[in-house]
Amino acid sequence: MDWRVFVTTFGVIFLAEMGDKTQLAAMTMAAQSKKPWAVFIAAAVALTAVSAIGVLAGSVLGNYLPLVWIKRVAAAAFIVIGVLMLAGKF
User: What distance in Å separates the CA atoms of residue 78 and residue 56, rounded to the nearest whole number?
Assistant: First the structure.
């Protein structure tokens, strides 16, 4: 295992997810249901599934597209989602 890649990936994902709507949703669901372990396990499985899809897509796309184009599409998607959120449509 490449520990440098592991630590960098962990740090970037941890900071990106800190305080986002997923964390707020998990906090709300745990408070509402009074079943924190069920919420934790479900959230962990969901985040693992989403991460697996992202890693698989990145691995496949990385074989066919230049990295610069993958980054550009990701940046454009973030911008579109941000604009939609500001417009109240997302």
Answer: 20
Residue 22 · residue 43 · CB < 8 Å: yes
- Are 61 and 70 contacting, i.e. CB atoms less than 8 angstroms apart? yes
Q: How far apart are CA 19 and CA 42, in angstroms?
A: 18
Which tens digits make up the pLDDT trace of 42-52? 999 999 999 99
Distance separating alpha carbons of residues 50 and 72, to the nearest angstrom: 21
Amino acid at 66: P
Three state DSSP letters for 6-72? HHHHHHHHHHHHCCCHHHHHHHHHHHHHCCHHHHHHHHHHHHHHHHHHHHHHHHHHHHHCCHHHHHH
Please state, in angstroms and rounded to a whole number, the distance separating the CA atoms of residues 67 and 30.
Answer: 39
